[in-house]
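user:
I keep going back and forth on a fold encoding question. Separate attempts, laid side by side, tell us more than any discussion would. Would you put together a sequence-and-structure record for a protein of your own picking? Write it directly below this note and I will take it from there.

assistant:
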Amino acid sequence: MTAMTTTTTEAAESRRLAGITAIVSAPIAFASAAVTLSGADWDSKIFETPTRLLEYGAAAANAARIGMVLDVIGYYALLVPVLLLLHRAMARHRPDLAGIATFAGATYIIVGATGAGILSAVWPSALNDIGDVGADTAGITASFDAITNGVVLGMWNIVGSAAIAVWLLIVGRMAWGTRRAFAGFTFVVAVAAAVDTIATALDVGSISSIALQVYIYAAPLWAAWLGIDLLRGNEPIS
């Protein structure tokens, strides 16, 4: 009886932790973009053409660094408790799918956080250097562009987007039986990520840009929705 009570208490605590971190992740994720934009006079085109950020020089360095650190926390790190909780929930029903989903979710978190961590170091360094007297502007711009494209297009828009698409497609499928509204929204985020992956791989920028915008805004809302449900004591998959 004591062991069962302990297990129940641990499950409730895990659900509460995942719920809190999921909810908190949403405003931090949105803040990451806002902080980065604040250093570039709210020029939203920097997200389509990151080299435009270099025009703002050292004045944008601190905002770029903080923005990427918040990106690590909001879009990735705070989802670790969610990943583990969803794994346990799915494993009770389909251990095979749970393993695939959790591997994909972990890949999304690790690759995405690593990419943002790289940019949190590269962007401020380039922004500080670009304004120095005698700086190799062409070389700095070329390096900035190459590293940024490697992270954004390779790590985020192909590997990361593909990984979260697989993760959420499985979560949505397993939640469909009892949580259809939540599952439906989960599918929206997953499909947007999948479209972003395919469009980026095929170099169809217009489609990739739209799909990415859907993902960027919908993913934090998905996390917040899940977090609220968890704090209400609702099982995401039952």
Observations:
- The mean pLDDT is 92.
